[in-house]
Predict the 3D structure of the following.
Amino acid sequence: MKTIIVACGGGIATSQTVAVRLESLLADNGLRGEVNVEAININSIPTYIKSADVYVSIAQQGEQEYDIPTFSGIPFLTGMGADTEFEKILAALRAG
């Protein structure tokens, strides 16, 4: 099973919103139960990054870089560019 982590400052509001949106999109694409999506707070990234396949960040810039594909979660909050960003996430999941 693949894992996507979604991180924001508190791991409660925005990351949870994006995680739910991603789960819905994954289900719509026939991937229900094949990808685990976890909402976490940004301070927990070192713990979760080792077991994640994709990282979706809510931060707009200035964040540390990681060795896994990283995508912006902002489009899933605003709805602008969400389809494009989701296609990139799907490609990363299929490649990994």
The chain has a mean pLDDT of 92. Helices lie at 14-28, 45-48, 74-78, 82-95. The chain is about 40% helix and 20% strand. Residues 14-28 form the longest helix (15 residues).
